[in-house]
Amino acid sequence: MELAKRDLFGGAMTVNLPRHNLVDASTLREVPDTQEVFLHTDCTASWIVEILQRVEPVDAVEAAKFHFSSLAHDNDALSSQVVDVRTLPAQPNASPHAANTPPPTICDGWQEVAKYNRTAPDKVEIMLAVYRLQAQNIDVVLSVNLPHVLADGTRTPEDLITGIKSSFVAVAQSLSIVDFGLFA
């Protein structure tokens, strides 16, 4: 999956997201000022970058699990399971802005979520990258919601699942905070 640099929050952050088949959700609906949301046009997957108040767990792994659990709660998930959590190393030879961005802690898991007032749930893989900004009391959370099987039995094409999953770490490592004034 080819990635392209996108400005977030008026250029205060940048991230490399899939080049094709993404639309900025703010062109379709209202999006909170603390979020940037991008929707795939060829499946129901979405990418979200969100600025949140820093959560209590000091440990990055526990904080990532907390954000995953919080998302499951917000989604009214019928079930959720964390599969893997790990902190990525800092990128060698990173740009000056990227070098000032903390390395992300990645959390991968599953949620069963009934959407749009349906009773049967979608089976959704959730991948999170959490960037802890202690001095600003902020957690930046990058997430991808990747439905594998929808309630009606529709399946996301395997090549799209593979492309999104294989690009997630590269996307997470590309997030760069350009202007820390965003958090003032």
TrEMBL record:
Q: Which UniProt keywords apply?
A: Protein transport, Transport
Could you give a GO molecular-function term held by this entry? small GTPase binding
Highest taxon listed in the record's lineage: Eukaryota
Tell me where the transmembrane regions lie: none
Q: Which GO terms describe its cellular component?
A: nucleus
Q: Which InterPro entries match?
A: Mog1, Mog1/PsbP_a/b/a-sand
In terms of Gene3D superfamilies, this protein maps to: Mog1/PsbP, alpha/beta/alpha sandwich (3.40.1000.10)
The Gene Ontology biological process terms listed for this entry are: protein import into nucleus
Record carries keyword Protease: no
Q: Which family does it belong to?
A: Belongs to the MOG1 family.
The entry's protein name is Mog1p/PsbP-like protein
Q: Source species, please?
A: Exidia glandulosa HHB12029
